[in-house]
Design a protein that fits this description.
10 strands; binds S-adenosylmethionine; Rossmann fold; alpha/beta; about 230 residues; globular; eight-stranded mixed sheet
Length: about 230
């Protein structure tokens, strides 16, 4: 049990640690099985922070299960406690590195949306490898998204925005770029209404947003046919 400003934080059944997930060697892990209604629509938020997007949106989208992934223990505990207090049964929070979880655990085509809002910009060149969007992570986001699924990106950081645009252009075979549509939980004039957005809005910072829509890859030629069909 932990505290934040004197308030007792209880993770309860909302929060999971990586140790509660089967080892990678056991094969893919499907987080939809964590929910009472695993067949419901499923969305993932990477870097949930204090959980503001999840608590605002999950109450409006009750037929969707949400998995938040947060690697800072303090924020993970805080967000899990908030969700537990609101009795939101359609949200779970995993304490781990989302990029590793996508790469080694998540099965194909399970998520309708991946949300990535105000991701850490890691401005120093030597730290760029820590950014969530990478040439190596985009194919995993594509793989985990269901047909027509969306990766939604919002940032206030001009250099990170350029990074997103460059990565989207390099992976135009995987994703089409579409305008970002705010969730219905966003307040007046807000893009999403996360904690960081509200903090940056008070500083007058501009926001940039895009939606990357999953494209289907061309089907590889069936090699079994190759041996049965002779050139004329
Ligand atoms: C700048 S904060 C934004 C939080 C929230 N999305 C918001 O807009 O208020 C970025 C969050 O992403 C988390 N984070 C960064 N990289 C992560 C990763 N690879 N896996 C999980 N969480 C990550 C950080 O711990 C931090 O809480």
């Amino acid at each position: 049990m932990d505290t934040s400003r004197g308030k007792t934080l209880v993770v309860g059944a909302i929060g999971l640690n990586q140790s509660q997930i089967p080892p990678h060697a056991a094969g893919p892990f499907d987080p939809r099985t964590l929910f009472a209604t695993p067949t419901n629509a499923f969305e993932i938020e990477i870097g949930s922070g204090k959980g503001t997007f999840l608590v605002q949106q999950a109450v409006r989208q009750t037929e969707t299960n949400f998995l938040g992934i947060e690697w800072t223990a303090e924020f993970w505990r805080y967000a899990a406690d908030r969700i537990r207090r609101r009795e939101l049964s359609n949200v779970k929070l995993l304490h781990t590195d989302a990029t590793e979880f996508f790469r080694f655990w998540l099965p194909d085509q399970i998520a309708g949306v991946i949300h990535l809002y105000f991701s850490d910009p890691w401005p120093k060149t030597r730290h760029h490898k820590r950014r969530v969007i990478q040439d190596e992570t985009l194919p995993h986001f594509h793989r985990v998204l269901a047909v027509g699924g969306e990766l939604r990106l919002v940032t206030d950081h001009v250099d990170l925005w350029k990074w997103y645009q460059d990565h989207a252009a390099r992976h135009a075979n995987l994703f089409a770029i579409k305008p970002f549509v705010s969730p219905d939980s966003a307040g007046l004039g807000e893009v999403v209404g996360t904690n960081f957005e509200r903090k940056f809005a008070r500083q007058g910072r501009p926001f940039m947003a895009m939606t990357l829509v999953k494209l289907e890859l061309p089907v590889a030629p069936d090699s079994s046919l190759a041996s049965t069909v002779s050139p004329s």
